[in-house]
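For reproducibility, we list the full input for the uridine-diphosphate-N-acetylglucosamine complex.
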Amino acid sequence: MSEFIINNKCVLNGEVSVSGSKNAALPIMAASILVPGKISLKNIPSLSDIDIMADILKCIGASVSFHGDLIIDASNIENSSAPPDLCTQIRASFLVAGPLLARFKRAQVPLPGGCPIGSRPVDLHLKGFKALGADYIIEDGFVKLTCSELKGTNIYLDFPSVGATQNIIMASATAKGTTVIENSASEPEITDLADFLNKCGANIKGAGTDTITIVGVKELNPCTHSVIPDRIEAGTFMVGAALTGGSIRLKNVNCSHLSAISSKLAEMGLTINEFSNELSVSSSGIKKHTDIKTLPFPGFPTDMQAQFAALMCQSDGTSVITETVFENRFMYIPELVRMNADIKLDGRCAIIKGGTQLVGAKVRASDLRAGAALVLAGLCADGKTIVNDAQYIKRGYDNLEQKLKNLGADVNYIL
Ligand code: UD1
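The corresponding predicted structure, in tokenized form, follows.
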């Protein structure tokens, strides 16, 4: 059990370079299954989730190595069955289902199951595969997919699921004919996957909107691709500046991916200045209360609501967070309450009374973003905060400890 220790409160000031996006890198790594030959991926963050996806690819026969860039060669994959011990560790492992099915006409992938933030079913992924011509059974904890060929079709998603959109794009990139995904997710990580596949020779249009058209191509060829910056890591540092009353310049960001976060921070009294691939955020000390409702992109990201909850504890009034994407994403609240936060939970809403001085405590990270929120809370709390189960933080934040130290924080990570 690892610990993230925040020894005392601080003011975050200085510059930080944001790492590549975990949620963009994982589907692109899965998509490499579709492409025989050496793919070179740049701006890959150093994270345990990335290592696990690399191990999954190795287990099914790909060659994967880090030489500054991440090099994947899927030419020799022969195994269409994904390893259960690794797959159950990360939900994104289910993203290998679409490309394995497309390449081998069969795939056997463990059900990702539930996780602390909600039940997270894969029915929309399966609906997409079925519409493309696949059959499946669920047996012994695996989804077993087969098809004689995948054929393009129209698929309407009942909810714009990020993972289902990605799996359907990958399954249809080399299918026969044209696939149209309606009510698709439009997150920047979808656009990055489409950009990568298009560089490999795919014909995908409309990524970034709610209708994506994929004209199947015969084969894909390797390319070099640099993944987009991590908008959630960037947002977490922006909240860090807000909550400690500091001023941070973020490098390697895409400002258009951060609009909802920037707008909410501006409403709360922060000054945000955008440059071409940099952004500065400075606090005047004022933290006005506000409300947030999580929504699919371009709405406010569910992956940022816990961090905002920590900030709202410091605001000048009562704020409400409404979570509409996942059913159980408030597990960090009892932990913030242990730090003297005044938060009440009412179904999908958290009602947060600002103006209480947070106090350091021993708390536990229930998931990645909960862990980030508790670290942020520790940065403005009186005394020492110890975040247990801090290995969750390593899943999504590349070198958070050193980056925070460089900004003036007194923190340690203990394995
Ligand atoms: C991705 C992100 C995650 C982010 C989420 C929403 C990755 C690796 N993870 O997760 O960080 O919080 O998008 O922005 O990119 N759903 C169904 N049936 C399905 C699929 C999803 O009901 O077949 C539901 C889920 O239970 C959830 C909602 O749709 O309530 C959103 O899930 P989805 O967009 O699929 O998120 P992920 O791709 O799992």
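The mean pLDDT is 96. The pocket of uridine-diphosphate-N-acetylglucosamine is lined by residues 23, 26, 91-92, 118, 120-125, 159, 161-164, 185, 189, 302-303, 325-326 (CB under 6 Å). Both points were considered when choosing residues for closer inspection.
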